[in-house]
Amino acid sequence: MVEKMCQWTDYQYDLPHYDACHKYYDCTSSERSARSEDDMVRTCKYPQLFSVDSGKCEDFSKVDCGTRKEAMKPCDYTKCANPDEASCFGLPDGDNVYRTKEGSPHYVTCLTQRTLDKKVCPMDSRGLYMQFAPGVGRCLPLDASTLRD
């Protein structure tokens, strides 16, 4: 079915995936011999979504997915060992705890539940990495009492 739709476009345009807004059917590829529908599916770079209007992957904030599912987690785009890896799903905008690395210098920057960046806190004056403090949303030096055992 998708191959026929690609033929109708004379292989000039990529087509939106029927269900997933971050995926599309690659109709413009020069490789057309014996392709199955699955072989034609491509995934946009995270966090882009496929625009029906432009026929290409664009910034998620500029795309209307209509009835297609709007992926938000990085692991919706690629397979991950932990599905919450670097996910901002359910978190407010701004800097937040890196869920799979809590209690560490790692944190994520979120916008509309999407991960815009993964970051690491800087070192303090003692040469130790500061820890991301989720309660205050920033990096803080480790308390000296935390270092004693």
Automatic annotation (TrEMBL):
Domain annotation Chitin-binding type-2: ranges: 3-67
UniProt superkingdom: Eukaryota
UniProt feature coiled coil, ranges: none
Transmembrane portions of the chain: none
One Gene Ontology cellular component: extracellular region
InterPro entries membership: Chitin-bd_dom, Chitin-bd_dom_sf
MF terms in GO: chitin binding
Name recorded for this polypeptide: Fibropellin-1
Organism for this UniProt entry: Elysia marginata
